[in-house]
Specification:
The protein is α/β, with parallel strands linked by helices. The protein has 13 helices and eight strands.
């Protein structure tokens, strides 16, 4: 449950991709608790867990880590180091250290304390998808500690390949690498975009930001709120959301973000203009990604004197927030003559931490769906991912857990 010893040599590669998944006889969900093995969309019977698995994206913690980390992130895409070095400059500007690991250490501590305060005696293990502590090492540690069933919390609130299914694939990779596929069970909390504890910190921040803009002399009708999230390939977005939003441009990924934005605006600034924008796109320029880009949206603002950026796609102020928003988007706004401010991400806001505890508790007690906390027009999401949900466009399905295969 602790970070790896500092004297341990750096491991530069994440676990290899799994070639199969362990499925109990008669089960349709791999490496799952008995309650989840049947594949029911919502699990409403109590489940006893031994621990919580907090799963992060990971990030480098020194200049020598940057390129190996980026190779892990882009594994299988054939991107040369020269191209990766262009992205690496963002990390190098911060000394090669991504803030995300320290943020997840803080979140793990806060979550552990909140679970204890709530009477849930569950240790919290933290593992990363792309850098130390790697998931397979953490799962091996948990197994040595006697853990046999975990409830996993990804540090992402929404449905898409990169924010949901890729976590599930990496858990399958880690279980196979640690030789625990038939021993350790991992369930996943539902996507938590609709939980009030995720929404409320953004609403709180937006109220304060609009008040600051007004104090700086800007009328409410001259303020534009830009709700921003990570752009993803349009083809991937169309496959998100378990087919529930096939009629929405951007699929479930866009629909969920729009639902959060609508709720935050309704709670904090219903009379202020707003839009959903995207950031941090990568990949070939010829591949369509969700738009508009935040910089293009800022440059196109008309009859506005102030912009408030609300990063609803992120749970902490990691590098893509600090660089893409606090540097690049701010520069674009200032070049356009706009007053600009950014709302903080939830981080370790007590309301958000309590929401994560609530997500664990609802599975421990088997809370009925109608009694689960949810404030957006899209209600509580699935506990067990649906078949094909959040698939990678154009790619064959890889082994994944916490969902019905494929």
């Amino acid at each position: 449950m602790t970070d790896l010893d500092a004297s341990t040599p750096r491991r530069e590669t994440k676990p290899p991709q799994a070639t199969g998944v362990h499925v109990e006889p008669g089960a349709v969900v791999a490496s799952a608790s008995p309650a989840a093995q049947s594949g029911s969309a919502h699990i409403t019977e109590p489940v006893s867990y031994d621990a919580v698995l907090l799963s992060g994206f990971g990030g480098p913690e020194g200049q020598d880590d940057v390129l190996p980390f980026l190779r892990n992130v882009t594994r299988g895409r054939g991107i040369p180091d020269a191209r990766l070095e262009e992205v690496a400059q963002h990390y190098r500007a911060f000394g090669g250290v991504s803030p995300i690991n320290e943020q997840n250490r803080a979140l793990r501590t806060a979550l552990q304390e909140a679970l204890a305060a709530a009477g849930l005696d569950l240790p919290v293990y933290w593992g990363n998808r792309n850098w130390e502590p790697y998931l397979d090492d953490v799962l091996a540690e948990a197994a040595r500690d006697g853990v046999r069933r975990m409830i996993a919390i990804p540090t992402s609130a929404y449905s898409s390949y990169s924010s949901c299914r890729q976590y599930r694939e990496d858990w399958a990779d880690a279980l196979e690498s640690a030789e625990l596929s038939g021993t350790l069970q991992i369930d996943k909390v539902r996507q938590f975009f609709s939980h009030p504890g995720f929404v409320e910190p953004f609403a709180e921040g937006l109220r304060e930001a609009v008040a600051s803009a007004e104090s700086a002399g800007h009328r409410r009708d001259a303020i534009e709120v830009l709700f921003t999230t990570h752009s993803i390939p349009s083809a991937d977005a169309a496959l998100s959301g378990a087919g529930a939003f096939d009629d929405v441009d951007g699929g479930g990924y866009a629909a969920q973000h729009l639902a959060v934005a609508e709720q935050v605006i309704a709670d904090a600034a219903p009379d202020v203009s707003w839009q959903l924008v995207y950031q941090s796109r990568s990949g070939a320029p010829s591949t369509p990604w969700l738009e508009p880009d935040i910089n293009d949206a800022i440059a196109a603002l008309d009859r506005r004197t102030a912009a408030v950026v609300v990063p609803i796609g992120f749970v902490s102020d990691h590098l893509e927030v600090l660089w893409d928003l606090d540097r690049e988007a701010r520069e674009t706004a200032e070049e356009s003559g706009l007053w600009v401010t950014r709302v903080a991400t939830p981080g370790v806001h007590p309301t958000f931490v309590d929401a994560l505890v609530d997500l664990v508790r609802e599975r421990v007690v088997g809370r009925p769906v109608g009694e689960r906390a949810s404030v957006t027009r899209i209600g509580p999401w699935f506990d067990v991912c649906r078949p094909g949900c959040c698939a990678k466009a154009g790619a064959a399905a890889r082994p994944a857990i916490a969902g019905i295969m494929p």
